Amino acid sequence: MGSGILVFDSLGRAQENAGKRRWAPTYNVLAVVGGVLLVLIPVILLCYAIVAIVLGYYIARWDKRRRIARIHYNLSDSEVVERLALIRGVSEWLERASIFWHVGAARAEQLPAPKLVGRQWLRLLDFNVDPLGISVGSQLLLFLPDRLLVQEGNGSVGGIPYQQLSVTFRRVGVTDDGPAPQDSENPTRTYLHKNKDGGPDRRYNDNVRWKYECGEIALASLNGWQRTFRLSSPTLAEGAARVLQALVTRAQAVA
After folding, report:
1. What are the backbone angles phi and psi of residue 167, rounded to the nearest 5°?
2. What is the pLDDT of residues 139-154, one digit of tens each?
3. Sorting pLDDT into bands at 50, 70 and 90, what band is 169?
4. pLDDT tens across 39-84, in order?
5. What is the DSSP pairing of strand 125-127 with strand 69-71?
6. CB of 195 closer than 8 Å to CB of 145
7. Bridge partners, residue 215, by sequence
8. Which of 18, 132, 147, 150 can bridge 143 by disulfide, Cβ–Cβ 3.0-4.6 Å?
């Protein structure tokens, strides 16, 4: 027909076309859902990140707690109390020195002053006491009531019972290019290059040297472990060694 109007040739065809699925509403729903998802994805990612961070925090705490070694002492035991008092005494002698060194095979290395270590600073260890701690490189030496504990940087530990520990003290002479520590003994000014009369050879700069006496404390175990520490004051070193030896003697008496 020439009217330009589409006319179905039968009622059946019209009914067939009318019964076909309408995709436009479906598309509209999908378009709306897609738009909502695009809006929500950043929110979902943010929620995921928050959950992951919180969950990771608690997993890390749980993992750390299960790896912690707990070493607790009976603080009502008079023997433990006496030994803790001796450890505090050693700390008081050591921390008063103006300079504290570890004497290695090649040279003496200045260290932080020994001190009673707060429990919050310990790696994977939990005590109910504050031990005396000395840091030597990656190692941490901890003086406990019953033993010297050596902790490596990776957290592994080894213990030396005081019954197996020896303590020795000696005075040593030191020659240094810096001024003598104020608590050293018998400081003497000398020169690296001297004239025949003992005076300084003025052809050399930085020629002044100082000689003075320090104190050394050597610790050694029966299995060959050893450490030597030097204090600028021989008097303080001797006092610390005396108290530390009293701790060893006390442990040997009750072994």
Report:
1. -130, 125
2. 889 999 999 988 887 7
3. very high
4. 777 777 677 678 778 877 777 777 767 667 778 888 899 999 999 9
5. parallel
6. no
7. 171, 231
8. 132
CB contact at 8 A, 187 and 210: yes
- DSSP secondary structure, 50-93, as one string: HHHHHHHHHHHHHHHHHHPEEE---TT-HHHHHHHHHHHHHHHH
CA dist., res. 63 & res. 17, Å (int): 66
pTM attached to this predicted model: 0.69
Q: Distance (Å, rounded) from C-alpha 245 to C-alpha 239?
A: 10
* Residue-level pLDDT at 15: 39
Return the exposure string of 130-163: e unless at least 16 CB atoms fall within 10 Å of the residue's CB, then b: bbbbbeeeeebbbbbbbbbbbbeeeeeeeebebe
Domain limits, the chain: 7-67, 73-253
Amino acid identity, position 8: F
